[in-house]
Structure to design on (183 residues):
């Protein structure tokens, strides 16, 4: 009897409507440089759901965990290749395109879906502090360990802490939900 009730609850929860994700802001257009040394324009993200984080390649701890989580997001969304991932460096002086390329290879990043970006400190600051509300990118290497979810219209729809319970599952589920949405 207990198994039947548990199965019923699982089916019922699968039919429950998804929670509405708030609109937390709009991402402005930006231009940076990708790990392959080519210009990256934010316009290329139009119509795509994407997940972003801020890392640096010589980080001794949290960035490795974040990149590992991002790799899991890439794997979990493999059947939905329209979803993109962006990792912005907080250390543009050291994280040159060749360094970012080697780091991307370490995490088996699919360059068609997961892009590592470097660029002007002012652009990184604008995105981290003003757009995503994650704090300063000021050269100190202190940075947020959160992921940001952006919808097809370039609107910020979620922020997920790496210390939260199962952040990979949550950001993946919400990204897939937004990908299905026509709005």
């Amino acid at each position: 009897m207990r198994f039947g009730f548990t199965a019923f609850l699982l089916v019922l929860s699968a039919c429950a409507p998804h929670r509405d994700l708030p609109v937390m802001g709009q991402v402005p257009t930006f231009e940076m440089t990708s790990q392959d040394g080519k210009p990256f324009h934010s316009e290329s993200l139009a119509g795509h759901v994407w997940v972003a984080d801020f890392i640096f390649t010589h980080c001794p701890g949290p960035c490795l965990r974040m990149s590992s989580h991002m790799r899991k997001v890439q794997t979990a969304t493999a059947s939905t290749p329209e979803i993109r991932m962006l990792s912005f460096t907080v250390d543009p002086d050291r994280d040159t395109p060749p360094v970012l390329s080697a780091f991307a290879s370490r995490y088996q990043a699919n360059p068609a879906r997961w892009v590592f970006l470097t660029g002007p400190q002012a652009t990184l600051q604008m995105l981290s502090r003003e757009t995503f509300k994650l704090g300063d990118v000021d050269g100190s290497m202190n940075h947020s360990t959160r992921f940001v979810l952006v919808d097809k219209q370039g609107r910020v729809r979620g922020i997920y802490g790496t210390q939260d319970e199962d952040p990979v599952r949550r950001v993946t589920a919400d990204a897939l939900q937004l990908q299905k949405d026509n709005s």
In short: Confidence is low (pLDDT under 50) at residues 1-17.
